[in-house]
Amino acid sequence: MFNARSIVDLTREMRRIGVSPEGIEIMEKKGEFYRVRIDGIPLKGALLLKQEALAAGMECALPWCTASLSCEETSAILFGTRRQFEILISKMKLQPFRGPAIAMEIEECLENIRREEYAVKHAGGTMRVPPFRIMGILNVTPDSFSDGGKYNDVERAVEHAYEMVKQGADIIDIGGESSRPFSSPVSEEEELARVIPVLEELDGVKVPISIDTYKPRVAEEALKRGATIINDIYGLRREGMAEVAREYGAAVVIMHMKGEPKNMQMNPRYDDVIGEIMSFFRERVEFARSRGIDDSQIILDPGIGFGKRVEDNLMILRSLESFKCLGFPILIGTSRKSFIGKILDVDITQRVEGTIATNVLALINGATFFRVHDVQENLRALKIADSIRGAFA
Fold first, then answer.
1. Which residues form the catalytic set?
2. CATH 3.20.20.20 for domain 118-390
3. Shortest CA distance to 328 belongs to which of 236, 252, 231?
4. For the chain, does the N or the C end have fewer beta carbons within 10 angstroms?
């Protein structure tokens, strides 16, 4: 008996038993199964989509309002093999009522889900994925939730940065303002006073440096001193940030956050957490493009713990592949966060294992960048998971 957990496993087994290359090419598409949700479909377009999906031998789940003709637009959930999707796409390209647009959205989603390689351009060059990339956290703040005050001395901060690089960090992420729940913002001057001296001492570091800020002036001053990535918890929503990224050719991490740090954990609620984050990403990506930022400069972060309940964080982690539909690398930051503490009933000092578990699952589900405090431990675990995932590919 054999159960193929992936198309790679299925293809390998077909080769092993002697299926011809021509047969494998045909059957691969029949063994690859997808479930795709599309939103904002006009009623008539949804009815045509259902008709064509059934004709292709797949399924299309529609809400009752489409049968009663009582809604102007709707969502649809499609499920079928890759081959069935190909037939559906070809048919929908010929249909009215947004048929070609629906076909294009489905086609792009499937292509992006299957995508395995990214080349992220930043101010210092290009970072290729795979393999996955580790972003080491360097908080030069007195009040960060996990290591506040530990590295707000320049010498200790620089020493820790080099230690993380030695342990295998691919990026050093420097932050001068805490974004923990209920924290208050600091002034530009204070944030600059914290991060600039450290940046000036890291000019010899061999990996890209990311500046964790939502303030355009702080980002610009950091880029002038060697930073090449902007990690923005506000997702380029502050006026001028996108222009700074464009001018310096910086990569940008666009993060989703509901509210702001001082109020984001005050009873956050979602009807559809994945759908809301997807809509946010689509809008922010279009905004970035309109400001001259290239797709190759964009990384998406769903914002674990930023205006999210425990159940929201878990849903995001198990649904990461949904965000792959957009075609950008995904960054995950679960390191030592409170939802891990709530699940395990442990304090911050005992959340390393929980962090590793979330990152391993995130890797399997499509994440490529991992923002962590404990570089060596997470790197080792992710190397094992990546080796298992890629074995015999």
1. 337, 371
2. yes
3. 252
4. N
